[in-house]
Amino acid sequence: MGPLTLAVDTTSSSVASPDGSGRKMQKTQLEARKNFASVNMREEKPFDFFRILFEGFIAGGTAGVVVETALYPIDTIKTRLQAAHGGGKIVLKGLYSGLTGNLAGVLPASALFVGVYEPTKQKLLKMFPENLSAFAHLTAGAIGGVAASLIRVPTEVVKQRMQTGQFSSPPDAVRLIASKEGFKGLYAGYGSFLLRDLPFDAIQFCIYEQLRIGYKAAAQRDMNDPENAIIGAFAGALTGAITTPLDVVKTRLMVQGSANQYKGISDCVQTIVREEGPSALLKGIGPRVMWIGIGGSIFFGVLESTKRLLAERHPKAPNVKHD
Question: How far apart are CA 252 and CA 284, in angstroms?
């Protein structure tokens, strides 16, 4: 695959003497075959793991807050479209309703996701051969999603209840949900959330990472921030479209409250299709694709630039690169 050439120091080989060219070629081929092992296994100290974890927390939290603030109104419209039954009217007031409380959850959730994803990804890339790098990215994305779901789900429940006008403030939402529905009310739709978000996280980050690997191999250089943003937008929009039906089901389960209109994921799907038709499972696909596409552009652009700024604060060994 493409990234093989990225681990090779072509600058030094270009000035080699003629009698040393054979040895240089053999060394270059050996480095290419080693790929991830030769690049990523240079540092095994626990300090590196904790540094990657810490930088992931910072970069993920920063990117999450920026993208959530910028695109919250679009998310609100998407939620109201999905929550509306039949030809229900969509209210366009209060598009930033619940933002402050949501940021209190988005910050630690995004930080936790990237903080878990980055070291997990790099560990898996060391364990698996280069042709299974996509599997490493898929797995790391799913693991990061599971960790972040412990914070994401209550945050999402409160946010969507406020977006649909059920509560006026995050503290009131948490208190009333817990009193009427119990603690489990804050995790309403947890199964459907995982059903949507685990595939979403895994697919989005896998597409993004694989496109970066291919692009870097073709361009023979590291990517700049605009290029990261463009690839992030494409990965986000594509994944958002694929997972829209799962998002509709998750939204319906989360906003139903104590009415318990749906008995579970299967019943929710069947009821939507029976009462509103199969096309209802694609409600909000336009705002969702736009929101996640733009969000992917902002998130990955901010994420990579923040990671780079943090990495520049620490000296690196030669040729050590983290994809």
Answer: 12
